[in-house]
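Quality-control log, excerpt.
Job 1 of 2 completed; input and output follow.
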Amino acid sequence: MKDNFEKENIFGKGVPNDAYAKYFVGNSYLNPLVSPDEAPIFLANVTFEPGCRNNWHIHRATKGGGQMLVCVAGEGWYQEEGKKARSLKGGDVVVIPANVKHWHGAKKDKWFSHIAIEVPGENTSAEWLEPVSDEEYAKL
């Protein structure tokens, strides 16, 4: 399973996502695709081990902002607060408006990678919230 995933994950797993580990349940990895001084938009391939997901969070902005996910490999979930979770696979794109509470991560038995794109805007910030509970996640 992991060998096939690594072949499919063309941007590579990267290194342990230690800087943001406190905002994840399980292990994730980060592979920046551009450096902040190279491009006006930051792009990174984020890889989630099976069962890994990030906490609920909001990309705040007073104008513009938000996030986009370009799914690269494996299978995962995306969910906005108050809505049904959406199943994701390579080739799917998720547009997340600013100020929308959401989470994303791998399915319980699958690796998952997406390119995270921070959409430029005014007064942007990320607000990290509570973890997705094991109980909520197990229902998917």
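Job 2 of 2 completed; input and output follow.
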Amino acid sequence: MSLAKTYPKIYSPAPVAWQVETAPVPYPQAAEFMETRAAQIAAGEAQELVWLLEHPPLYTGGTSAKEADLVDPERFDVFQTGRGGQYTYHGPGQRVGYVMLDLKKRGRDVSAFVRGLEQWIIDTLAEFDITAERRCGRVGVWVAYPDAQGTIIEEKIAAIGVRLRKWVSFHGISINLNPDLSHFAGIVPCGIQEHGVTSLSALGKDVSMAELDAALQRNFEVLFSPVESVA
């Protein structure tokens, strides 16, 4: 069932700005932009925004990050953030979606908002014949498939980490399109050791970033709001 029906308050008819970057954005620049934009949205001075981008290879640590989970701190730059969650990787071939929405207009229901983000990813991946699922006790979105011996393997294909200030969200989601999955070896992704990570490419899906973005836009408009593309 669509969360637009299950949690109608996360939907708003007011258009959200939709911005797509064509070049990698350094993490400090992105963090500064999000802080500023979230404050402007809270003050009623700026439109809500979904910002799609890629980062250079880097690791970020959330508020629950454990030092032991940073396996190789010298591999890439490491940034501490105020978002929820533990360590994650960002890099080329991964679509990052920073979601700056005013939850005062969307029911002030954080649980519904996070479930909406999960459903956004699940519905988007379904367009590419990928069955993605939630897992109780595990953050993010997962896929399950049999290996050559028939054993069911569960791997993470998308991560979620958000922060709220004055009921405005920032940070957001990341979906592995075709990143170098070996780059995840420098951390314990989200503190989960017993399951690996995967990507659309690793699952045999030949999808371009533009195709993924188009699917993200379609499904965002069903669950959250219509969008207006901005430069």
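Post-run check on job 2. The chain has one domain: 3-230.
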